[in-house]
Design a protein that fits this description.
The chain is mainly alpha-helical and 506 residues long. The chain is built from 23 helices and 3 strands. It is globular and about 75 Å long.
Length: 506
């Protein structure tokens, strides 16, 4: 059921207006921060207003302009887009309050530019979430890349410019060299860039050339380099030279989430489950991202810098999303999609904690954090909760994701994937648990007291605690995420037995 309405444009317009107001408030920091807070709240509210219609099984669509036959600047809201739209807009609220404490405490320069680019990155994320075609998706995907570059290079030193250079070369190079050709090939073979309403059939006709379909598919998978699938992942650890709130934006709010969201959207709404099953492209994808999951986790074990360890954790955890969708069954797809939300809240907590530690102690190395839990109990307590989520320990959100992923692997009787998922959980525990143990069970209270260390400013601590709390809530009430993206509707589609109708499978 379709609703034609311009409502998908409202969050994008709100962010655009917010960006303009922020840039005009250069000499008034209080006003600038007010606009950031107001914009983030209103953006989330405008997205949340669309939830009831999606719950009822509707899709909201709107075409802004038609460029050529099959090429339109159009928008759509369905269950998948709603997950990313809700998460990116909601986490922007957390990031805004955290930004205020971080930027003011460290007296960072160019704060107006910082807040402006931060907002435009959110605009890009909302545009990606609600894109109704590959044309719209590509446009907003590039907006994210361009306006996060100044954020990565924010410190404007040698290290910052080097990290930002690698960031822009990787992401612009892959989007122009891989992603754009994939978009063109899709149009040539299908005659349209619009996403299909049927995740079973996709947009390709049965007679389409299988070789060119495969080529196009892999160009998409690696062209969306924001997903950080190996070997196109190195930009992400290099971007850790950015301020910690930017790292949170990269890892939890907009950038990498846009990458995995785009892959999920293309797999389901361009290629379709039937084609991916028939060609076994889904299975091959599952094994490729499994390699990323394991190797990135092993590298994380070797990192003493806290942000670097978190960066490789993100490289690993992102691939859970793609892996789930690549399993091509209800449980797997469910686990992959809800991991977008579960990872978002947990990972933003971890990076917020890293930033709070730096603000309070100016320490970056894990080896220097023995006993820090005595001085910063709220921060490290939240870090412990988010770590448990990343490991997959109940009742925190990450457990729910892995539960669905494990069920998905068992339902298709794929033992190697099952073993990989269990092995990765052990590796997750290997690089997260020692941090919490070091913080609370090593060192001594008096040593930290002599250093006069205390919690970061309250504008930083409150978002940390709230984000960690939400991770627990999502773990205790996982049905919210299931209903949010229309998982029941997904189950109905699969139950119809139409998986192979288009391609002669099942």
């Amino acid at each position: 059921m379709i609703i034609e309405s311009a409502r998908p444009l409202i969050p994008i317009l709100i962010v655009l207006i917010t960006t303009i107001l922020i840039s005009l408030s250069k000499k008034k920091p209080n006003v600038r921060e007010f606009w950031s807070i107001a914009g983030s709240v209103l953006t989330f509210a405008s997205v949340a207003c669309m939830v009831p219609d999606i719950w009822c099984g509707f899709k909201i669509v709107y075409t802004l302009s038609s460029i050529a036959p099959g090429i339109s600047l159009n928008f759509r809201v369905d269950g998948l887009s709603l997950v990313f739209g809700i998460i990116s807009s909601f986490l922007w609220i957390f990031a805004t309050f955290y930004n205020i404490g971080y930027m003011r405490t460290l007296d960072e320069h160019a704060q107006t530019r910082y807040y402006t680019c931060f907002a435009i990155a959110i605009l890009g994320a909302q545009g990606v979430a609600f894109s109704g075609s590959l044309f719209s998706l590509y446009l907003f995907y590039e907006i994210i890349t361009i306006f996060t570059y100044p954020l990565v290079a924010h410190h404007q030193d040698t290290e910052g410019y080097a990290g930002a250079k690698k960031y822009i070369v990787y992401l612009m190079g892959t989007s122009k060299g891989l992603l754009l050709p994939a978009v063109i090939l899709t149009y040539v073979m299908s005659g349209t860039l619009d996403f299909s309403d049927n995740i079973i059939t996709g947009v390709f006709d049965k007679g389409a050339d299988s070789v060119w379909i495969a080529v196009t598919y892999w160009l998409f998978i690696f062209g969306f380099a924001k997903a950080a699938i190996m070997p196109l992942h190195n930009w992400l650890p290099s971007a850790m030279v950015a301020p910690t709130p930017v790292s949170a934006l990269l890892h939890a709010v907009a950038v990498v989430k846009a990458g995995v969201f785009c892959i999920c959207r293309v797999m389901l709404s361009t290629f379709g489950v039937g084609l991916l099953q028939y060609s076994q492209l889904g299975l091959y994808t599952a094994y490729i991202v499994s390699f990323t999951i394991l190797v990135a986790s092993i590298i994380a074990l070797t990192k003493d810098d806290l942000k670097a360890r978190l960066a490789y954790s993100t490289v690993s955890q992102l691939s859970y999303v793609v892996l789930g969708v690549a399993l091509l069954d209800v449980s797997g797809i469910t686990g992959g999609i809800i991991h977008i939300a579960n990872h978002g809240f947990s990972k933003i907590t971890l990076f917020f904690c890293a930033g709070a530690i730096y603000v309070a102690t100016h320490k970056k190395k894990i080896s220097d954090m023995s006993g820090i839990g005595y001085a910063m109990p709220f921060t490290m307590g939240a870090f412990a909760i988010a770590s448990l989520s990343m490991i997959g320990v109940p009742p925190v959100a990450g457990f729910v994701s892995k539960w669905y992923l494990l069920n998905g692997a068992m339902e298709i009787h794929n033992i190697p994937i099952l073993i990989i998922l269990m092995g990765s959980t052990i590796l997750n525990a290997g690089y997260f648990a020692p941090i919490t143990i070091r913080a609370f069970f090593q060192g001594n209270r008096s040593g930290w007291s002599r250093e006069n260390i205390k919690e970061a400013p309250i504008t930083m601590v409150i978002p940390i605690v709230l984000a960690a709390t939400i991770s627990v809530v999502l773990g205790l009430f996982p049905q919210f995420s299931w209903v949010l993206y229309g998982g029941c509707f997904l189950g109905d589609i699969f139950s119809k037995g139409t998986k192979g109708a288009h391609y002669g499978v099942l």
